[in-house]
Amino acid sequence: MTKETAARSEFVSRRKFLVAAGAAGATGLAGCSGSSSDASNDASGGSGDSSGGGNSGGDSGSSESEGLDTSLLNAEGSSTVYPISNKGSSYWNSNAPPSDGEYWGSNSESTVPGWEELGEPDMMIADYFASLAGFEPTEQRSEPPFPTTVGLSHSGTGCEAVVDGLVDIGNSSGPITAELDWSEERRDEEVVDHVVGRDGQPVVVSSDVSDAGVAQLTGEQIRQIFQGEVDNWSDLDGVDYDQEIYVIGRSEGSGTDTAFRLNMLGDADAPMDVDTRQGQNQQVAQLVQQNDGAIAYMALAFTSEEVTPIGIDFEGTLYEPDPDAENTIFDSEYPLNRDLHMYTKITEDTPSGTDRREAAFLNMFLTDFGQQLFVEDVNYIPLPTADIEAEREKLSDWIDY
Amino acid sequence: MTTDTERVASGVRGALRRRVRQGRDFVDETEPAALAAVVVAVASMAATVVGFLLVSSLTVLPFMVAVAAIGYGWIRHQDVTARVVTLMMTVSTILILALIIVFIFMESIPVIAYESATVFGVSVPGLRMFIEPRWDAVSEPVRYSMVPMIHGTVMVTAIATAVAAPLGVAAALFLSEIAPPMVREAVKPGVEILAGIPSIVYGFIGFTVLSPWASTQFDLNGQGTYLFVGIVVGLMALPTVVSVAEDALSSVPESMKSGSLAIGTTDWQTMTSITLPAAFSGVSAAVLLGVGRAIGETMAATVMLRGVPRLTDPLYNVFYGQETLTSIIARNYGDADGLQMDALFVAGVILFVTVLVISIGSQYIEWRMSRKFGGEI
């Protein structure tokens, strides 16, 4: 009897297992075939679907929240744009109340930057920015009107993902025209480019080089170094330091590499002759710290005592790393600065390129508050007022400024 | 010649007839309900595969049918169903392998066409990848030569083998022939744990400690040398070599060693003239497996190498480490597109073929060994 019971229970558990495994397999398969078979379908499921409120959304003051798409807003792409995008997303998802003071709003101890310019709204952070685009506030901590998430990959991957409709926002540190080899016409037809900040690409040297007195180079000297025309620091005019130059480049064809070739060497296809290529800013910073005679270019956020930015003399104008100088490497005129893009896709439902959720989220970055917290605080360069106004214009379908 | 062909043909015919008879017997013996269940399961599973290949969203339907049929068969006719399910599992493994092979070859076709070279007036696709050493994915002329990466892989593998083979065989000999049983019991699992350390840990130590040290000591411009990548990869392959070689050595029949000792040789003489030669095929299989591991090693090579595909000057200069077949894929897959991406698949194809040859080689050696000693291993 006991034996029989044991046998039966084993029987049942096996069957259960089989059923469970089968179901899991089926779900996986369905998910797989769904996403790869019909990307545009997916896009309308994920980002469009605004037929209820979307079409009548020209006047965004109306707060009809039923039928609004409040599904997860997802972004993916460049590791350079990631800090901005991810910090924004974290703030958004926390939906902090205005009494918080540190992340949003104001209290007796502290006030977030740009709070006055926002008009000191008595709403939670995501509620406030979402309500500008017509969403209903939830008035719940950690429960924004719609959640957001940011994935980390590469510029090219982010661009492809947004074009294929896999994500709502594609983060890219290079223009999509260069990343995907598109014409400008095609870009204007398929995506909208939202610039949220600027990245300075300072040229950095290792501490032994800056100790040897190298504080600035001319654009021409940097071109010579990165094209392999000089091999030793002492070959450069006005440098007295006998040490081979260790030239560090970035991954072939990456956004950073393309931007550098374009801005510094004059052409996106310009030849380069470097000693090593690294994919990530962290690796570059580590290599500059570990090796003598190193020169590299990388995102501003990763400079330090041992990884010192140098000034560059471009055609007579000296851009200095000192923020108080007349011309600095933080200026938008500095040739190695590049725009940080968040691309959204133009679909049938959203001919203007952004849907309501994207507009609500992107608008957060285009305020003094957003520029300061999400751009300047992670060591990127905030946009000048004129650029912010131009960017806001792209969201004006949904938001009244 | 004709008789040969005829014999083969008749052999095939005989085998076919046997199969058909077996199949008929199976159909005759099996209950109709069980037969129906397995036929439905197999047919719907085949439909699932077709649907999957066509990327149809209806794929889930035949899959559900197959699951239901298998579920029913399992409850009512477990014996027959189990036979069919295990057969399907085996077929699916082979199918997946075949799909992977087809995919990587297909993906690499465009760049092979791009890299055609003309020899004696005949255009040979892909040849230029192996005769010109230039790799540049961005500036003109754009070339995707595999020569620098093949060179890098050969260098790293050679150095790794030079590290892993003598150390590994010596350690295996000690463990199997010299060490007292207690030491062996303690050390052997230890060696196997060594194999479990993730490769990024080795790579990280190499990047932050070994490479800067080598750069200073040998007065190199910057860091990244084939020498140290080879040494690190050799250490990583060591546990495989020790473990497999030890198995081969300890499987040499005791009677052979005793016989040798009985005619008055020393332990050392027995080892070098009896045990090692007898286990030679097993030991070389161990070294080959280690080599396979060295060729496929990615993470440590990626973080330690320079990532600029070019030949070192001179070719045997091990103090500059540029790129290997695996590291170029790991470093560039994210940023590459178009032909550059296809070129990475070519690196994958070369790796695949190499590892295939090595694994077939070591299996051949194992087969010879088991024939020699009557299937002990």
Summarize the structure.
Chain A has 401 residues and is an alpha/beta fold. Chain A has helices at residues 2-37, 39-46, 82-94, 125-132, 155-163, 176-179, 184-190, 207-211, 219-226, 255-264, 281-290, 356-365, 368-375, 385-393; strands spanning 73-77, 148-152, 169-172, 191-199, 203-206, 216-218, 246-250, 276-278, 294-297, 307-309, 311-314, 317-319, 338-345.
Top keywords for this entry?
heterodimer, A: 401 residues, alpha/beta, 5-stranded mixed sheet, 14 helices, B: MetI-like fold, 2 domains, two-stranded antiparallel ribbon
What does this structure look like?
- The complex is a heterodimer of chains A (401) and B (377).
- Chain A has helices at 2-37, 39-46, 82-94, 125-132, 155-163, 176-179, 184-190, 207-211, 219-226, 255-264, 281-290, 356-365, 368-375, 385-393, and strands at residues 73-77, 148-152, 169-172, 191-199, 203-206, 216-218, 246-250, 276-278, 294-297, 307-309, 311-314, 317-319, 338-345.
- With 401 residues, chain A is α/β, with parallel strands linked by helices.
- In chain A, the strands form three sheets. Chain A has a five-stranded mixed β-sheet with strand order 2-1-3-13-4. Chain A has a five-stranded mixed β-sheet with strand order 8-7-9-5-10. A three-stranded mixed β-sheet of chain A has the order 6-11-12.
- In chain A, strand 11 and strand 12 form a beta hairpin.
- In chain A, helix 3 crosses helix 13 and helix 4 (125-132) packs across helix 12 (356-365).
- Chain A is globular and about 70 Å long.
- By secondary structure, chain B is mainly alpha-helical.
- Helices cover 75% and strands 3% of the residues of chain B.
- Chain B contains 15 helices and four strands.
- In chain B, helix 7 (181-194) packs across helix 9.
- Chain B is globular and about 80 Å long.
- Chains A and B meet through helix 1, helix 5, strand 7, helix 10 and strand 8 of A and helix 2, helix 3 and helix 8 of B.
